[in-house]
Amino acid sequence: MGRRRRAEQERAGAAGALPDAIAALSRTLPAGPSPETFRRAKFDRPEAAPPLWRMLFLALSPLPGDCAPAPRAPPAPPALEAQVRLVKRALRSQGYPRRALAQLPEDGARGSRELLLALAWLLARGPLLERLLGRTRVRLGDEVALCQGEAPASPGPPAACGGADGPVDIRHLQWLMGKLRLQWRNLMTSQQEQCALLGKIHSYTRGCHSDRSLGHLSVAETEMLRDPEGGRQLLRRLESENARLEAALAWRRRELVFWQWMDTVLGACPLEAAQPPFLPRIPESGADQLEMVAQQLQALHEELQGAVEPRRAAWEARQVGGSGSEWSALQRATQEAVGQELAALRRAWEEGGAPAQPHGPCRLVKSDARASGGPGLRAAEVIGALRSREACLEAVLRQLQSQCRQELAQLAAALPGLIWILPPGH
After folding, report:
1. For residues 403 and 318, which has the higher predicted lDDT (pLDDT)?
2. Residue 226 CA to chain centroid, in angstroms?
3. Helix (H) or strand (E) holding 144
4. pLDDT at residue 167, as a whole number
5. DSSP state string for 322-340
6. pTM score, two decimals?
7. CB 51 within 8 A of CB 37
8. What span, in angstroms and rounded, lies between the C-alpha atoms of 143 and 162?
9. Which residues face 360 on adjacent strands?
10. Chain-centre distance of CA 159, in angstroms?
11. DSSP secondary-structure letter at 301?
12. CB under 8 Å to 290, separation ≥6 — which residues?
């Protein structure tokens, strides 16, 4: 009797903790539906589908930049049909396995249970809540992004691109490259102007901050002093952020109850048959061209094999015929050169004063050059490390270019009828 009573109490406690867990999850998600919407979605009720479509659309929208300022007025959301299409495209690009969601109508009136399963898949797949909390984080300091070149791609829906059946115009590609360079220069110029303005604000407000490690005010703090109403809005944003953080902590404490409930939701869904792997569609107009290209590649492959085999046989015969010691010496010299290059790269990186490559946004703090070094990175140290890295890469590039020129010269000498013309600008 005691065991049965304890089991009944545990089930009653889990049933009581489930609404709290779902409510905490809803407060963490953007436009989070109510726990009643989650309950209706378990039974695939149609009235639960539109809020779930909107919630997934906001969760899968491309994240803004780490240092991008928050817009004063959020843009109006697109129509429900557009949200449905974007959610389907985003889930497919991330590898969502169930085909039932892709077959839902685009009016957004059905499929609440499938949407609930998609949300659970996103929660189990990666740090979805952490990304959403980072998106709505209130930035009190002036930040700059460091070493964002290897950042992962945005989880949002990919841009639509149309395949070109005909040949690509090289002039159009050159125009696109020029446009890209111009936009890159404009971006660099705007960042330099932003850093210059931030430097002026930091210089004018030196000694105004209560924290001595900072010593100056940020743009948000200066705006708060200039406009009291902006300070009250900032306080409300901070309170909203604290509420979301508290909801995320409550969700982590009750997460197990939610996953046990999701097992019952998954058990109520019909099983899907194994689907063949998705293959890209080849247009009919390009099938003949693809076959012709395949034949040309096969012919080139056979021609290259016929040209490589005699050269390989001659090289092996020359190596066995008495030049083995020269080959060993050349191999040792190459290994020593590579070892020296790696050692130089390690020394250059260690002398840069950065034990680990920084990633993500960092707060900009203007400090006195004579002050003792505290936590964080100094701009001069980062610039020095990047310049030493640039010098090493340029040396490697020059070495590779020299090797390529030597190889091309050898190939040109082997074919007396070949005329080698350098491209313009080289």
Report:
1. 403
2. 37
3. strand 143-146
4. 61
5. T-HHHHHHHHHHHHHHHHH
6. 0.57
7. yes
8. 37
9. 146
10. 15
11. H
12. 282
pLDDT band, residue 157 (cuts 50/70/90): very low
More confident residue, 174 or 381: 174
Q: Give Rg (Cα) of the chain.
A: 31
d(CA 38, CA 43): 9
Using an 8 Å Cβ cutoff, are 113 and 38 in contact?
no
Flag the least confident range among 43-52, 71-80, 265-274. Answer: 71-80
Query: For the chain, what's the residue count?
Result: 426
Q: Any alpha helices (H) in 29-79, and if so which ranges?
A: 35-42, 49-60
Chain position carrying tokens 């001659």: 314
Rounded CA-CA distance 231/223 in Å is 8
Q: What distance in Å separates the CA atoms of residue 192 and residue 254, rounded to the nearest whole number? A: 47
Residue 42, judged by CB atoms within 10 A of its CB (0-12, 13-18, 19+), counts as: middle
- 143 bridge partner residues: 363
Q: What is the per-residue pLDDT for 69?
A: 45
Task: Evaluate whether 122 touches 93 at the Cβ level (below 8 Å).
Answer: no
Residue 208 identity: C
Q: Is the model's pLDDT at 48 over the cut of 60?
A: yes
- The set of long-range contacts for 367-374, using a CB threshold of 8 Å and a minimum separation of 24, is 367/215, 374/213
Residue 323 reports pLDDT greater than 60: no
Higher pLDDT, 280 or 133: 133
What is the DSSP secondary structure assignment for residue 146, as one 8-state letter? E
pLDDT tens digits for range 344-400: 777 666 655 444 455 566 777 776 655 555 555 566 777 777 787 788 788 888 888
Cβ 108 vs Cβ 50: under 8 Å: yes
Instruction: Say if residues 353 and 389 touch (Cβ distance below 8 Å).
Output: no
- How many angstroms separate the CA atoms of 388 and 352, rounded? 8
* Residue showing tokens 């020095």: 384
Residue 135's identity, in one-letter code, is R
> What type of residue is 297?
L
Whether the CB-CB separation of 81 and 87 falls below 8 Å is answered with no
Tell me the pLDDT of the chain averaged across its residues: 75
Paired with 119 in beta bridges are none
- Long-range pairs, 62-65, Cβ under 8 A, ≥24: 62/154, 62/155, 62/156, 62/157, 63/131, 63/134, 63/135, 63/154, 63/155, 63/156, 64/135, 65/145
Phi-psi category of residue 44: left, alpha or beta, with phi > 0 → left and psi -120 to 50 → alpha: left
